[in-house]
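Letters spell out the chain; backbone shape is given numerically. Both lines appear below:
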Amino acid sequence: LSAVFLCACSEDDVFESGAGSLIDHYRWQAVSPLEDIFASPMVPSDDCVDGEGFVAEVFGQDLVFSVSTDQCAQVTVEQPLLINLAAGTWVEGRLWHFALSADSPAAGWAAIAVEERVVWAQAVEIPAESGLMRIQWQAPRDVMAGEMLRFHVQNHGDNSWHLIDLNVQ
């Protein structure tokens, strides 16, 4: 699924990053299992659909993208980036999870990829108290607006994860 962009650029052209949000929570779409770089043998639930297992919703005072893992033990969603990212640009974001529980000790994790390249991933041992995860990563190369950004959550048990934001300052 990688896109190839050709540029008739001169040495004076400089690829510049935009500023602001990389995402629109209403634009997340599920990735088919055949195209999912995070796919594992875990079988997705029939309830893991937009509006049921994952949804854009207001959480506190923020619009977030929420995943309910009792319906989506794993899900990868994607959307086109809203802004350009020059190589080395820092991206920051926040991901909140409620207390994480499972029938036996386990691990949950979340990840972000630009096209096929994982740029951030973090595991959380379960059980765990609720918490805010800081997301920080650098663009591995010049990334054009429109290239696909993927967000993945994987977790056994009745838990919820909420992607709050992904921004360039």
